[in-house]
Amino acid sequence: MANTPDTSVEIAPSGSAAEEANDATASDSLLVHKEVSRRTLSYHERPGVCWAVLAMASVAYFGKYFAISDLYIVETLFEGELFISPSRLSIILAISYAASIFGKVTAGVLSDARGGKFVFVLAGLGYVVTSILFGLLVYTNPTPVAYPRDPKHPHQTVLAAPGWQFALFLIVWAYNGYFALGLCWVSVVALCTNWVPTAHYGTLMGLVSMAPQLGDVIARSVLSSIIIVFPWRTIFFWAAGFALCLMLPVVFFVKNAPGEEETAIQKTKTKEEREPFRQRAIVLLKHPNLWLLALLSGCLYSVRTLFLLYSPSLLVHSFCANKGNRQLVPHNCLTSHVAAATAGRASALFTLLGCVSTLVIGRLRDWLPKRHRASVLLLPLFVLLVCLGLLWNASNPMWKHSNGGTVSFGVAVTSLAVAGLMLFGPYKMIGAVFAPEIGGKRLKGTACSIMGISDNTAAMVLLLVKGWIGGNWHLMFSILAIITCVAIVCALCLWANDISSSRDPHAHLRAITPSSDLYHRVPTENESTQTDEETGEESVAQDAGMADYRRISESRRAIFRKISQELDV
């Protein structure tokens, strides 16, 4: 029908063509969230524009990984030449995730209030500046201080960076975590979901969710090549330059929403201010699957973060444990540029194969019925558990083949690649698809922030644990396996909840929160008519009477039946 605002939904005939047109027109006047129809219509009329926006947002997001992967690649050089102990390095890495918790909270509120583009530009400028500042700090060469290795034996000392330099490293890298790890991804999700119709969330947001993996692969490959040609300390300035250039297309060519929808979104938010944010947030917090998703997301993110940050270090030690490689780099292999570059390029396989996982699981999410969508999380997690078991066995210091607890280079690279293939897809679907669905249009940024707070808290704790146990990878793999088991239990509970709710075919309509995209309340006969404060026009009830409302209700029930059939609930 030409007058129907959302061409993706057909309303079943309920009478003559004239009555259908009247119903559609009256129904359109009741739609508070008109931006949904414009978003869907814009996608069907000009899909190329939507794809271009998603592509530019994804490429801009690559810059974040230049701003954080620079330190990960030069971990061993950073420790060796600046006298940073492994425990101090773990604190530097963990403080960025602690700061990102505040960034996620800020990003959720600002994205819902000001739009995703505003937050993304703010984040980009932040991590570019902090990368430059960190590079300047790396070039300071203060005299290391001798600290007692053990208070009981003060004559046994170890050299370490002075306290003021370590404190500055902490402060700058914390701000880097606030902008890059805190603000960035939430803003990208908020921006892209303004352009993607809900029916295509799984496929299109699955493609967007490949941006972190591709960005990490590109950043590690490019920066690993740079440290072979240029001094390793310049890597932070190179990273800042790449990050700035990659974000420019979004700054100049991308709107927060398609066409007039950007204005419509702000008008909608003004109307929604009648309902306090606190009241809407309480309804969101009572969602049955929210906390299961938060725990599941935190488990997966902590494992992913541990591998992402420490895979270069693990691979450097595995590379140098091989006698043949030690002959190629006879002088201090652990702090050589060759070992760091080799490990940096090899660690890119972890995120490269994660792209395949994200794409496949996103497609399965759209293909499977809603009651079985959580099942796509289970198989990868079981394979990940098996992979961690193999790494645990290979790192057992009691076995002769383990090189004293160090995993061989071939086993480490292969296992990391399989882990990335099994890990990234489930995690990205939680943050890019499941969380925005729970939050709806009005609170999707807040829902993503809750996932982010859980993620970064879990990652921070695990990084501190890694710094405490040091290089004991055998124990570390045991801890990762336990965390994976918790994630499997959460995924099973989530699947059981979906199956249970699907037994009532209309439960998902009655349980929809005020933040949902599907529900718009129609006044009953006993309720008084209100006046639109923004336009000064009287409501449809006063113009058309209750008979029109009954016809509109029939049209809405037809829409809900159509949606139920598409979701196969």
UniProtKB/TrEMBL annotation:
Residues 1-23, 520-543 are annotated as: Disordered. Keywords: Membrane, Transmembrane, Transmembrane helix. The chain crosses the membrane at residues 48-68, 88-111, 118-139, 166-192, 204-229, 235-254, 290-310, 346-364, 376-395, 407-427, 448-469, 475-496. One of its GO terms (biological process) is phosphate ion transmembrane transport. It is found in: Endomembrane system. Its main location: membrane. It holds the Pfam family MFS_1. GO terms for cellular component: endomembrane system; membrane. GO terms for molecular function: glucose 6-phosphate:phosphate antiporter activity. It is a multi-pass membrane protein. InterPro entries: MFS, MFS_dom, MFS_trans_sf, OPA_Antiporter. Residues 53-499 form the Major facilitator superfamily (MFS) profile domain. This is Major facilitator superfamily (MFS) profile domain-containing protein. It comes from Vitrella brassicaformis (strain CCMP3155). The lineage of its organism: Eukaryota, Sar, Alveolata, Colpodellida, Vitrellaceae.
